[in-house]
Every structure is written in C-alpha cells, then in structure tokens.
Amino acid sequence: MDSINWSELSFGYMPTDYNVRCTYKDGQWGEIEETTDSTITLHMAATCLHYGQEAFEGLKAFRGKDGKIRIFRIEENAKRLQSTSDGIMMAKLPIEKFEEAVKRVVKLNERFVPPYESGASLYIRPLLIGTSAQVGVKPSNEYLFMIFVTPVGPYFKGGFQTTPVVILRQFDRAAPLGTGTFKVGGNYAASLVAGEKAHSMGYSSVLYLDAKEKKYVDECGPANFFGIKQNTYVTPESTSILPSITNKSLMQLAEDMGMTVERRQIPEEELGTFEEAGQCGTAAVISPISRIDDVDQNKSYVISKDGTPGPISRKLYEHLRAIQYGDEPDTHGWVTVLD
User: Fold this and answer.
1) pLDDT of residue 8
2) Which of 28, 47, 185, 336 has the fewest CB atoms within 10 Å, i.e. the most exposed one?
3) What is the pLDDT of residue 159?
4) Three-state SS for 45?
5) Which residues does 67 contact at the CB level (< 8 Å), separation at least 6?
6) What are the mean pLDDT values of the chain's consecutive 10-residue runs (339 residues total)?
7) Helix 245-256 vs helix 311-325: crossing angle, to nearest 10
8) 3-class secondary structure, 212
C-alpha cells in the first residue's frame, strides 16, 4: 500500500482484494459470497447482454480524522436500486442484504480506503444483471448481484473549480416516461456520443434540454443540475432525470441553511438569472458551472463572472464533505460507521 500515491489518484479502476456476490435463483436470493476473482462467467444468451437487464449504483466510503470508516447513505442507494429493478423488471434485492453486502465488501478491502485529507475515497460499485439464457424478450429468471470497490480521486482533475458546459440540441439522454429515472447502463451509453463531442469542444459535460419540447433544463451529463438565486436552491423536476442522492442531500442541507428549495421545471431562458449553478452527483459531489453555452442559438449564460465557485455552492460542498468524513455531526443519520 505504500506504493499508492493517494493524492494523485484518478477517477479510474484499481484492483482491490475482494468483491462480494449474491445470486437469485428459484425465486429467492442466496447468501452473500466473497471472492478474489474479478471476472464473471455469463451465458451468451443472458438477458443483460441482449435486453439491457442491467442496473448499478455508486456510493463512497471515507476515512475520518479519527481513523473510522464512514459510508454515505447506503439505504438510499439500496432503495434506488429497488426502484430501478421495478422499472426494468428485475428481482428486487432486499435493502438489508444490500446494506450487508456493502459493509462486508468495504470491511474486506479496508486497506484500500484512502487516508484522511488525501482528497481520495473508496468508490463502491454495486451491479445487478439478468443472467438466465433466453432468446424471447422477457425478464430473466435468474440474477447476479455483485459489488466491487476501488480507491478514486476527484471525478474532475481540478477538483472543486468551475467548468463550462454546453447545450447540444441534437442529442437526448432519455425520453420522458422512459428509463431516465432509473440507473441503467443504457442511459449512459446513450450519453457517450454527446459527452465526447462536448469534451472535444472544451466543455466538461452536456446540459440536456427536455427531449419532448427542448424548452426545459434536464440532466447535466451524468449528474443533476442545480441553480441558486435569491437564497433559493432550484433543481429540475422531470420524468427523465435520475434522482440523485447527492442532490437530495444538498436540498436538505440548503433547507438547513435557511434557503428555499424548489424542484420544478426550469426554462432555458432562466439560466441567465442564476447567481450560481452546478452539476452534482456521487462522483464529483458538486462541480460548479462557470458558463453555459447554447451553440445552436449563439447564446452564452455566464454564471461565474470571475470564474470561481460561488459562496453558497462552496458552503454546501464543504458541509456535505464534512459530514462524509465525520468532521461535522451527522444530524440526518446519513452515515454508516463501520465497527
């Protein structure tokens, strides 16, 4: 472990010691098993490969100043996986089994939890896939749930600093009443072309407008969008946005700070009225937005006049991070501390 430069980690994959697995067969879930094998064997006709029966989650574990390991909002991730399972007709993993598996895999790999103040964390990736062999378009009879972990650095190399985003009308991430509210791989595959185009143009991500009317703000790359003005935290209400657990947490912290929270449709033209804006999610927590360019309309909404993160975004970011690391009291019961 001495060979790992914790402060220089990227947001990538590094092998760890163990992963855990659990299978669903004959109408019931089996026991959680531990393994050092990083590969899986799948039948070539497995439903996950042909009909997209695949769901995943993402959460993190942090090492505090006291040396204790804290995992952020396990139950919320378990509930979201169940929601996704309902959405694409997969067997639902019980919340208790999800929590047990997360705690076990972190404990097994605790030597990979980065030290306090390194700027890194242990990323936890639960995965659920349909495994039974069939050719007809119907739900699988068997499922495999597994979790691997890997230490990661910041999602964006610069950490907490502003970046520009771009509106690209020729792309949609997900349709209203489709799978946008579920954490399935297909939504991310659908975003790859637009994301790469944005990166090649010098932007950190795409700010999608709603697929139906192209009038309202939707998802921001792989994250939720939020804007701040007049002591109000505003985030989109949409039937195609993944409900971000980080965004949910930030909304609660904003209320704790005495702010008004609004979850509603955000017309594109309102972007010019925000004093601060950002994209938020598990990977980056908050990535503040410097400006939003609408290349089709030749418009630019400048959010940060001096290119620095706004004071409210910074306060929310630091407050959430302090809770995750145990530096501030967890008054909402979000953190699970490992024994």
Assistant:
1) 87
2) 28
3) 76
4) coil
5) 116
6) 84 96 98 98 98 98 97 98 98 98 98 94 98 96 98 82 96 94 96 97 97 96 96 97 97 98 98 97 94 96 96 97 97 96
7) 110
8) coil
Residue in the structure block whose two tokens are 């502003």: 162
Residue 209 phi/psi, 5° resolution? -95, 160
CB proximity list for 93: less than 8 A, separation 6 or greater: 22, 24, 29, 78, 81, 82, 85, 128, 145
pTM: 0.96
How far are the Cα atoms of 87, 98, 211, 272, 292 from residue 177, in angstroms, in the given order? 11, 27, 11, 28, 26
Tokens of 22: 């659990």
CA–CA dist 82, 285 (Å, integer): 23
Q: Whose CA is closest to 195, among 165, 215, 239?
A: 165
Tokens of 172: 């949609």
CA proximity to 49, closest of 108, 111, 147, 133: 133
Please, what is the end-to-end C-alpha distance for the chain in angstroms? Answer: 22
Residue 223: strand, helix, or coil: strand
Q: What stretch of H or E contains 124?
A: strand 121-130
Cβ count within 10 A of residue 243: 14
Strand-strand pairing, 69-72 and 59-63:
antiparallel
219 in helix, strand or coil? strand
The pair of three-digit structure tokens given for residue 222, joined into one six-digit string: 């792989």
* Structure confidence at residue 216 (pLDDT): 98
Which residues, at least 6 apart from 334, have a Cβ–Cβ distance to it below 8 Å? 72, 73, 249, 323
How far is the C-alpha of 100 from the C-alpha of 61, rounded, in Å? 14
For residue 113, which of 34, 17, 36 has the smallest C-alpha distance?
17
Q: What is the pLDDT of residue 339?
A: 83
The strand pair at 260-264 and 335-337 is best described as: unpaired
Neighbours of 171 (CB within 10 A): 17
Q: What is the pLDDT of residue 2?
A: 67
Q: According to the model, what pLDDT value does residue 1 have?
A: 64
Give the 3-state DSSP-derived string for 144-169, with helices as H, strands as E and coil as C.
EEEEEEEEECCCCCCCCCCEEEEECC
